[in-house]
Design a protein that fits this description.
Distance between the termini: 13 Å
Bound molecules: ligand CA2
Largest sheet: 5 strands, parallel
Helix content: 40-55%
Strand content: 15-25%
Number of helices: 6
Shape: globular
Strand order of the largest sheet: 2-1-3-4-5
Number of strands: 5
CATH class: Alpha Beta
Radius of gyration: 14 Å
């Protein structure tokens, strides 16, 4: 059995579909998880899907992924713009990393234009809502050993 793709979600994404639907849509994180699982299954893969509001928890999961995952899909949310800890963990992960975002940060406030995660991501999928995750899972599956 091949290793799963870790799909990791950063702070406040648990509110998806519940708050600010005008920006992030009505799809819940549980819906996104179901879409990722279905897309992975169609490609003969599985996903481990997790969300945390805590930077250290995300670092722990990235470290776990080094041995347990074949690839990482990460929506770091706001930590993408601030966290050198996530960058360092991802650099050490030694598996392909795909960054994904629901919105298009480049079309939003200037503080969202840079992410540290992009420095280590093989690819970045943005602006397509839940579809960003599906395409990110597809890319991760293609890159996975
Ligand atoms: O577009 C994305 O996926 C983001 O990663 C979402 C982050 C934002 O800080 C990034 O710049 C872009 C925010 C996630 C917060 O999600 C919420 C969802 C519903 C209600 C409130 C927040």
């Amino acid at each position: 059995m091949s290793k799963p793709i870790y799909v990791l979600n950063g702070p406040n994404l648990n509110l998806l579909g519940v708050r600010e639907p005008e920006i992030y849509g009505k799809t819940t994180l549980a819906d996104v998880q179901a879409l990722c699982e279905a897309r992975a299954k169609s490609l003969g893969k599985t996903v481990v899907f997790r969300q945390s509001n805590h930077e250290g928890q995300l670092v722990d999961w990235i470290q776990e992924a080094r041995t347990m995952a074949c690839a990482i899909v990460i929506n770091p949310a706001a930590y993408g713009h601030t966290s050198i800890a996530l960058l360092d963990a991802l650099k050490a992960a030694e598996v392909p990393v795909i960054e994904c975002h629901l919105s298009n940060p480049a079309a939003r406030e200037s503080f969202r234009h840079h992410t540290y995660v992009s420095l280590v991501a093989t690819g970045v999928v943005t602006g397509l809502g839940a579809k960003s995750y599906e395409l990110a899972v597809e890319a991760a599956a293609a890159l996975a050993a």
